[in-house]
UniProtKB/TrEMBL annotation:
Protein name: histidine kinase
Keywords: ATP-binding, Coiled coil, Kinase, Membrane, Nucleotide-binding, Phosphoprotein, Transferase, Transmembrane, Transmembrane helix, Two-component regulatory system
Lineage: Bacteria, Bacillati, Actinomycetota, Actinomycetes, Kitasatosporales
Enzyme Commission code: 2.7.13.3
Domain Histidine kinase/HSP90-like ATPase: start-end pairs: 337-424
Any coiled-coil regions, as ranges: 192-226
Keyword Electron transport attributed: no
Amino acid sequence: MSGDDAGQASPVLTGETPTPALFTGRRWFIPSALLHELDPDAARAGRRPRRTARDWVVDFSCFLLAVLVGAAAIEALNDNPHVPEWLAAVDQLTGALACAAVWLRRRWPLGLAVAMTPLTFVSDTAGGAGLIALFTLAVHRPFRYVAWVGGINAALAPLYYWVRPDADVPYLVSVPFAVLLTVAIVGWGMFVRAKRQLMVSLRDRARRAETEAELRAEQAQRLAREDIAREMHDVLAHRLTLLSVHAGALEFRPDAPPAETARAAGVIRESAHEALQDLREIIGVLRAGEPDDTGRPQPTLGALDTLVAESREAGMKVALDHRVDDAADVPSSVGRTAYRIVQEGLTNARKHAPGTEVTVTVTGAPGDGLTVSVHNPPPEGEVPPVPGSGQGLIGLTERATLAGGRLEHGHTPEGGFEVRARLPWGC
């Protein structure tokens, strides 16, 4: 019989693993039990596996082997003077029934093995069917069942050969040989079972690995979207605040000189255009479900002067104390974080403390880290409430933490507000 003999799915081998694609086209040459274990739908529905072409070949081979062993036993019975004719006839009838029962081994492996134990004790011709039933049990059931049935068969061997001695083989040879044969059959079946379990385990691990890879990809996509959202908040908040400031100037100074009105209108138009352009790009990225691959350059610490100049053009009073000799030496991630901190600080000062002079201080050196501070004094007079959710400062804190630094913000003793961050800058 084949070492890859298949059978009914074992409860130990259950698992929701997909039928492997490499079996497609040759599933009829795979054991039905293995296909059943690798088919999650069949396992959940509790359907019995259908015999494959290989199963029919193996089952017929097992039946033929049982018949051949029984035929050899019939010849030995006829030559044994210790067995009367009526007992030989009963033995042959019992052996025929045992051989026919081999076809049920897939459906009831434990029941067949248990039933074969007394049959093989009273019938020589049922010996082949009994070995096949024991092998099937070892393949499809846990070791505790195999140990009990196999142990009983091995324990009955001395009594069997004492009651029905072999005419040609001595007693002291027959008993060890029968026990060794039982152990070999059980070991072979357990080896096949272990191989089946390994196959199912590998398929299950492959499925889990694919699922984990999909989860990691989804998480990476979600993190990329969150990063895009933070970038969008920083960019749009800055540009829309500039637009609001100039629009407010036009509203409260309708008698402004034409040149100043034209300049403010130009800033509004340019800010609105850039905001819409950034919004289109980000929406396109989100619709595509992919990270931002437009190649748009990200701001670094070197763009800080441009940011301050843009704020001054909008009418803000900004004092920049930039004491970093070569901004190009700052790591890009650290420089981008510092830029966003200053950008958000200027945006908040413009909204909540209009007309005040904002002080931006950037200091640091390789090995000492980079310190960024945005401070504004308390505003003069009443400031109309400006809607805000505080998400900007939360996002800045998260940015600084991801960069390996820390960020603090809050009111100063004199009533102003300060955002202060310390970022790492290795040697």
